[in-house]
Amino acid sequence: MLAAGAVFVMWAVATLTFFAIRLIPGDPAEAILGGPGSQASQEALDQVRRDYGLDQPLLVQYLAMLARLVTGDLGTSYALRTPVADLLGGQLGGTMLLAVLALLVAWILALGLSLWSTGRARVAAAVGEGIELTAAALPHFWLAAVLIAIFSTGLDWFPPIATGTPAGLVLPVATLAIPLAGFLAQVMRESLLDALQQPFVVSARARGENTTGLRLRHTIRHASLPAISLSGWALGWLLSGAVVVETIFAMPGLGRTLLQAVTLRDVPVVTGVVLLVALVYVVMTVVTDVASRLADPRLRQEGAR
Amino acid sequence: MSELELRQTTVEASAEHLGPRRRRMPRAGTVLAVAFVAFLAVATVAPSLVWTQDPNRIAAADAFESPSLAHWFGTDESGRDVYSRVIAGTASSLLIGVSATLIGLALGLVLGVLASFGGRVLDFGVGRVIEVLFAFPGLLLALLVIVVAGPGPVTATIAVGLSTAPGYARIIRGQLVGIRSSHYVEAARVLGHSPGRILARHLLPNALVPLFVLATLGVGQAIVWAAALSYLGLGAQPPAAEWGAMLAAGRTYLPTAPWLTVFPGLMIVGTTIATTMLGRALTRRGREGR
């Protein structure tokens, strides 16, 4: 069932992208040859139309595209004349590393903050809420600049551009993780407050469990449940954020490639990145569903009905 | 899930978990948020009232001055006063944010009404469309729109509006379905009122306040996204005093003149925080009024 839904979403994303791209005004063959300014000859245009299958009816082109996608062929970049799959394949790893690290760091920050501040005295709770609200409001492009100004130009702790070393990853990961932690912590606070009112918490307290032990042993799972189911959304959000972060920190990756392709209107590359991100999102949705079941036995029983 | 839905649920939750109010006094945060939004409104309608000098006055001798009493936010590479330019940019930044929100809200309303009132087939169809659109996370859908329509402030606005529409649609559908199953709608149906009349007389009026809260939350998000597109060079372009474009222009001078980046960004952050707090206050008020 899940797999069928995932295949449907991927098909719909590919179809939507294919037809949206046809709305671009102008001749695609001319665009491949460098735009209207290139004064391409008629033979060159015909040649390109044949090479890219643009002389075929739209339906044939569409079916050919689907057939190519199934085999993992994403077409050829207009600007670089290299296969898109090769181009993106080399960059997926770096971007995924960035996104997954950011997701982990955001998780740790959010869990720490909400366990520390939720349901405490007014001041601590207000400080916690204020931090969450502010963090969730920070735009990546601005946070990156501020972090560079403080930790790079000011303190000289970390390089301002990603150098490929672990130190170079610190600021990009922090830029992506801090706003996400704000979102996750807000959601965790909600479920943690619910959990803290449950009878099992009262009984643990009656047994003499101290506050910290109580939170760590009894409520941490409740706090993490909604954040687990959000992780699919979060990873997609991080990949979108990677467009900005990779551009600012001059890191090679899917996001920066996407921005360059959008600027150059390199249609196959844009389509390729969109499909790849959609694939990651769809896979993550399935993964988070399974992870939620692992973390919450109640869901497993529901599924067994 | 979308960013908007996340903001929406957290606002609802924060209103839910608040204890009873002790005094009939608004919270300090709400007062600050209202004051900030009022300031933005003045800066939009009559910027000359709040700026300290002409935002386009060039004074080469004053270039790159750090923030001081004379220039609160410092000066840029041509000696222009950054504070005055930030004020001058309020109108275009808010215009883009509000227009994008209205586009997203309108599309979301159409989809939401279709899904909750068009019968089971339409509900299923719209549901699948929304699901597919969620597979273009964050800015991705907006970037796709820009590839098709070309960069610029107008397409960026439409792009942000379109990419936030699925989030609105799903929230609005949920709200309408909730209202539809309420007792007063059931009563109206028993009385033999037509679906169109029920929609116009009962559903939309009751959905109005939540829609307003939603739009308040959405404006903050739309401003951030539009500014991100401007920052990437796909929205408003640098000579404009739009906040994202100012940030983009300041990027070159980040090591020597960080204030060119810090202050326009602070306005964006302040606007997002203020609109979120307003959304919370409105939700709270709605709960207490009931």
Question: What would you say this structure looks like, in words?
Answer:
The complex is a heterodimer of chains A (about 300) and B (about 290). Chain A is mainly alpha-helical and about 300 residues long. In chain A, helix 7 crosses helix 8, helix 9 packs across helix 10 and helix 10 packs parallel to helix 11. Chain A is elongated and about 85 Å long. Chain B is an all-alpha fold and about 290 residues long. Chain B has 11 helices and no strands. In chain B, helix 1 crosses helix 7 and helix 2 packs across helix 4. The radius of gyration of chain B is 22 Å and the shape is elongated. Chains A and B meet through helix 1, helix 6, helix 7, helix 8 and helix 10 of A and helix 1, helix 5, helix 6, helix 9 and helix 10 of B. Chain A: One of its GO terms (cellular component) is plasma membrane. Chain A: Belongs to the binding-protein-dependent transport system permease family. Chain A: One of its GO terms (molecular function) is dipeptide transmembrane transporter activity. Chain A: It holds the Pfam family BPD_transp_1_N. Chain A: This is ABC transporter permease.
